[in-house]
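Sample entry (351 residues):
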Amino acid sequence: MEEDRQNLKGGKDKLEYYRGIETGTLEPRLKLVKEESNLKTLTYYYPEKDIIKYTEDEVRKFSLDSYGESIPYVDGELTIFNNYLFDFWGYFLNAEGLALFGHLKRFAYGNKDWCFPNFELISLKMDKSRPTVHNYMDILERYGFAYKFGVWNRSREGVEESPIFKVRKKVPLLSKKLIYGDPDIVIPDDAPAHIRKALKKEKEGLPKRLQQEHEKYVKRMINNNETVKLEKDLDFEKIYLQWQQYGELIKASSKKKSRLASEVLVEKEMDKDELALLEFIKEYISNKISKPSYDTWFSNILLKKENKDISILTPNEFAKDWLEERYVEMFETALKEYECQFNSIKFEVLQ
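Predicted structure, serialized as tokens:
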């Protein structure tokens, strides 16, 4: 029965999976900061992201091993790596990328091609900071070794859980462009340092000595009657874009309301009465729901009061719909507890 089916994490809760896609705009988020005895608002700007939401069936079907030509070997119960991974992919993944792939792969045992390990522990085991480990995750995604899906738990008020990682089970052969380089690659000045480094290597290809060793490896495979087909190019960014058609797009904001990052200049200030009211509401709600739910849906809300109309401002359309559908009564009760006179409550996306 569908109700008895386990989710990818082995439980019975209904999970939804998603990927964030930066829109090229920034969204302002206001945070209450206490300075001495006064509360003030500070504005922070975060990259705005659209969301591509996937069903569990789609995540199960997605397989990185479907792309590229793999060497003829499939892992069993042990975490085993073919020498090809170290001899040739190591140049592009670096030692840290190989280590991260190993940590992910050890949890994708047997026939599983997914896992959900603790990234904090992985960072400690690698003796690397979390941002550094996430940079190497970018590299693994770039070359199709792992792919991350965010997770919402619909059975627990939509709280965000630890992500799911789809992991490649077979080691792919390098494409011809990775082996011999691609002089047409343009390296953007504003790309992150770890991506610029990867692009530089892709532009130049393997060092000559490794190119020669790779040619020897291919000859040995052919002599052993193995079929060898080197792809000309394998662009996983395009593959991931094509995969988005199987998900549901949730826009961060409508195009009319979107602004370029350079245009996000105006802060939305709240007066002292609004600050005090918001602080009361948030404290009231934090005592009524779980901390993960509070952090997910209420930590970034703001409030405006005009005459007797209350506006709750949310960072995105998704949060607006979630609060509007599930928490109106809780807001009304909090306002009554505060003895606030109001005619209406409406929810809006912060502009």
